[in-house]
Protein: ABC transporter related protein
Organism: Mucilaginibacter paludis DSM 18603
Amino acid sequence: MAKTRNVVNPQNISFRQRLAALKNLPELFRLVWLSSPWKTSVSFLLRVVRSAMPVALLYVGKLIVDQVVLLNRHPGGNQHDLWQLVAVEFGLAVLTDGLNRMINLLDSLLGDLFSNYTSMRIMRHAATLDLDQFEDSVFYDKLERARQQTVGRSVLLSQVMSQVQDFISMGFLITGLAAFNPWLILLLLVAIIPAFLGESYFNSQNYALTRSQTPERRELDYVRYLGASDETAKEVKIFGLADFIINRFETLSNRFYADNSKLAVKRSAWGTFFSVLGSMGYYAAYGVIIYQTIEGKTTVGSLTFLAGSFRQLSSLMEGMLNRFTSVSQGAIYLNDFLEFFEIKPRITVAAAPLPFPNPIKQGFTFEDVGFRYHNQTAWANRHLNFTLAPGEKLALVGENGAGKTTLVKLMARLYDPTEGRILLDGVDLKLYAIEDLRLNLGVIFQDYIRYQMTLSQNIAVGNISQINNQALIERAASQSLADALAEKLPQHYNQWLGRRFNDGVELSGGEWQKVALARAYMKDAQVLILDEPTAALDARAEYEVFQRFAELTEGKSAVLISHRFSTARLANRILVLDKGTVLEIGTHAELLLKNGRYAELFRLQAQGYQ
Ligand SMILES: Nc1ncnc2c1ncn2[C@@H]1O[C@H](COP(=O)(O)OP(=O)(O)OP(=O)(O)O)[C@@H](O)[C@H]1O
């Protein structure tokens, strides 16, 4: 797994870690900028203009009050300046409102763009990672947290922008207050800092809690899916699992609720206390200003300006401090997001790959190959020594868990061997480009995906570059016997499959299998690998599929995994796996003659038909 960016102890995030996390912000800005450069710049410019508005409005307000007081003292004076000032204030108010709306609009547009952009980045990066990384639960938690960041992080951006905006606004207001009485600023700080520390503490507790809950949250999502999904409904009904699932959901969600509500109550109580403290600070300052006005040391206009400035400053500062905690918290969450992009695939890619042999001359050779899954002690494959010759059809047989699927995954470099090497035409498989290898292999796994897409698209996934090549798709369908199915469907090749979307048609297990098989014929692969390709087919369909398969793969290599010996015996050679190692290898006749495990299992199955 990739190194950890910032080792954050989930139970205790210190102020320093919080500050340290702010270094993630430039990266956030870069990502937002990449989502839309011009919207980001316009939003920033508008905020700079907007930051001058509070002090401008207060100052014009002060001038108006002073004019009114003057006219009050000297009735009949010239009102021209007063009304001009009122007009200016009106203009500023309208401008402020307009700026706010534009900023909000840009923020929400940027938010959408950012979320789309980062979701695509996550998918793109995930595509580069290894299969075993997906099979690791630590990785999965990280992926999950990264996914959650795609929506929330644009809020972080607008918070950071608002922070800059408020900071400039405060600069203007502080200048005004300091000119009047610098002590007021100290009072302001004393009233605000406890609130900030309190907020900061509770935010870190909240983050620690959310983070420590990630695995359970994944389980909660999974349980929710089990309880209400088209794919699980059948078993849930048959086995009467509803109560079992709902109880599990209830236990988990109650635990979250208890933890979260404890923290929320504590936070709210302390929040109230600190806010009273803040109000006390404000009213103390207000008292000082009123006193000085009565003493005649300041004008009524200045009183309104200073009282307004103080109120605004206090709310700006409180807002900024609160926002700081959520910005730094957001920046800590950002760690998870950036950490995900730091995970690198372990499967090495040749820097200067060799040209892929076409045609393959010597075939694939396993040289004492062993493989152990990540974090597992048992070997899934061990001491594999055999060659798949060009044009040869090799059947893999063996009991459940014998290592058949793992062996073909190694051929496709979904994993690399833990020990030993796989050679292709005498050269280590790692020296060829992985894309070339996959292009030359047509692999259909037993747990192939039933894409909730059209029939055409379901077949085209076997060679997505040919998605618009309808003739090829239909040819592949006829080769796998899925053409009869296309005939039968109301919308033929454009028929949406699966029930998840409108007008989708669900297929039978065998029908799905024919569709999946068609994927193997979508490209002119030199080697075909079919992992239990006919398990769901009826006897006649299986026979026909193999007749076709033999014709269509004439001269090509193929690996067939099957529990049906009627299928396996069609291969040129049969490799019997046991506990990950090669127990026997030979032709059907040779293995029968040998009278070993194959012969035993073959007779056992044959007896079943007598
Ligand atoms: N992703 C995985 N992570 C950890 N262990 C795995 C994983 N996949 C398979 N294994 C283990 O590796 C061993 C070989 O599994 P494999 O799927 O290759 O067997 P198989 O012969 O194809 O079995 P079957 O006939 O049931 O499909 C099994 O013991 C299995 O538990």
In short: The longest strand covers residues 364-371. The beta strands are 364-371, 381-388, 393-398, 419-424, 427-428, 441-444, 527-531, 557-561, 573-578, 581-586.
